[in-house]
Amino acid sequence: MTKILRISRRNQEKSEIEAAAEILRNGGLVAFPTETVYGLGADALNPRAVKKIFEAKGRPSDNPLIVHIGNKKEIYKLAREIPEETERLMEKFWPGPLTLVLKKSKAVPKVTTGGLDTVAIRMPKHRIALSLIKKSKVPIAAPSANLFSRPSPTLAEHVIEDLHGKIEAIIDGGKTKIGVESTVLDLTTDPPTLLRPGGITLEELEEFLGEVKVHPALKGKKIKKMDFKSPGMKYKHYAPNANVIVVEGDCRNVKKKVQQLADKYRKEAKKVAVMTTDKNHSYKADLIKFVGREFNAIAKNLFKTYREFDEEKANIIIVEGVENKGLGFAIMNRLKKASCKTIKV
Fold this sequence. Notes:
Layout: E1 3-6, H1 10-25, E2 30-33, E3 38-43, H2 47-57, E4 66-68, H3 75-78, E5 79-80, H4 85-93, E6 98-104, E7 118-122, H5 127-136, E8 140-141, H6 156-163, E9 169-172, E10 183-186, E11 193-196, H7 202-209, E12 213-214, E13 243-248, H8 251-267, E14 272-276, E15 287-290, H9 295-311, E16 316-320, H10 327-338, E17 341-344
Parallel strand pairs: 1-9, 2-9, 4-7, 6-10, 11-12, 13-16, 13-17, 14-15, 14-16
Antiparallel strand pairs: 2-3, 3-8, 4-8, 5-6, 6-7, 10-11
């Protein structure tokens, strides 16, 4: 059975986190909230424990995990050949939704890094996550706490839906703040390379660092052979059961195309859902959900809305694209990774 450890008040926190920390120290799995999404944690330095993450999620073993730490100094135990800008980045963005990719030290088993010689590390900005890491006294390897390729969980209920009975415990700490995963920046290249957009924007990194390369895969280019140093790069991710179609371009043309597609699929007896950023829309479809106008709201609601459409048995989800800048870059990345088709109008 999976224990549900609910933390709704501060006075509950100490005992529940100690119970979860003991599970981690003993090689078990614990799902816990971060500021981005819920993570599925194991002792990052225990190969047997880490293997359980892949088994519980049904995740391919060559898909690297992010190691979460509770103190900036821990990076020096987990990584080697640490570039000069690392300290500056940690000082500016940690704790927070930025993951740094570095050369791994011998302490980190290759199962944690997907067989690579690099390790992805971040320090989360969430009270429960930091308390859990510090209490367990081990760095925690943690991908999103969902079945592989499913929408990432932003509520404990999402974790329960996917992983109840497969892991030892789930800490229920309420809604996550950001709703999409961390930004991943590769510091083994010069200049640094953005591998995954997320809660820290490309613009923020460029303003702080100067030049930042954007990985060709993020520009839609197909890469035949390479090491995928970040989760979210190699496989289809973040997808609901329904087929997702993303429509991007001029606002008026997007709305017209979304309605055309909805009409087409409804005539084929499909249950059609539309995800919109316009509260005053005039769409006609079986299911319509407004996810917000601002990027922050859209990111927070994206994965939750996918899961709601799944509960309502949608066959097709048609999504309005957003502007590919700021947090919108991360939103479009998640939409495209989940989609079966992207249409530009």
